[in-house]
Amino acid sequence: MSTRTPTSSRRPAPPADLSPIERLRQVMAALRDPQHGCPWDIEQTFETIAPYTIEEAYEVADAIAQGDMPHLEEELGDLLLQVIYYTQMGSEAGHFDFDSVADGIAEKMIRRHPHVFGGESVADSEAQTRNWEAQKAEERARKAAEAGVRPSALDGVSAAFPALMRAVKLQKRASRVGFDWPDAERVLDKIDEEIGEVRAEMTADPAKRDMDRLEDEVGDLLFVCVNLARKLGVDPESALRRCNRKFESRFRMVETLMQDEHGRTLEESELEDMEALWQRAKQLEKS
Known about the structure:
Blueprint: H1 20-31, H2 39-43, H3 46-66, H4 69-93, H5 98-111, H6 114-117, H7 125-147, H8 163-176, H9 184-202, H10 211-231, H11 236-262, H12 271-286
C-alpha cells in the first residue's frame, strides 16, 4: 500500500481551447504529477497498465460487433488514453514520448506505402498486401541480423497474443512459405485424425490417463480447427465470439422458459427437459 500523503491542493484543468490531443496529454501529465497528481495514476507502471490495454481493445472490438457507434466512440477514447498513459511514462523515464511514437508510426506508414507517397504503383489491394508483407519480412530479417540470430518466417508473432489469434498468425506465416494444406477438405481429414487421437486418450484407463498427453491432443484439435476456419476465410475469433453470444442468448431463453412454463430452475430440472427447451429456443431465434 502506498505511503504517499494525500494532498487536497487542486490545479486548474487544461483549457478547452487546446487541441484535443494536447489537452489529453496535459490531463495525463497532471494525473501523473508527483506532488499533486492522482495517487493511483502515479503508482502505475507499464506492467500494471498492460492488462487494461488488452481489455480496452476487446471492448472496442465488441462495440464494433454490436454496431454501437456512440459506444465505439467512448471505447476508442479509452483506448487512446492507454497510448497517452504509456507515452507519459516513457517520457518521464526518458525512453520516448507521444511525438516520437507518432512520428515513428507516420514514418513507417510512409515507408510501407510507396504507391501512395512515392513513385510506385500497385494493381489492387491483393498486390498491396503482398508488398506490405514483403516489406515487413525485410524489416524482420534486418532485426534478426542486428540481433545476430537466424531469421525465421515466424519471427515477430508475439507470444503474448491470445492463443486463438496467435494460431492464425502462425499458420498464415507458415502458409506464405508453402507449408500449408492445399484445400479445406484436407484440413477436415486432419480434424478427423485429431478427433481419433483425442478419443484414444479419453478411452484410456482413468487411473493411467496422462493429462499432459490429453491436453496436447486437445490443443492439436483446436489448432487444426483454427486452420479450417482460415482456409474457409472465416476469422475464428469472430466466429467464436458470435457463437458465445448465440449460446448466451439461447441459454438465457432456456432459463426463462423453464421458469415460466415449468416453475423451476435449471438446477431443479432434468437434462432431457433442458435439451427440449434448447431446441425450442433455436426455433424461436429463427422465427
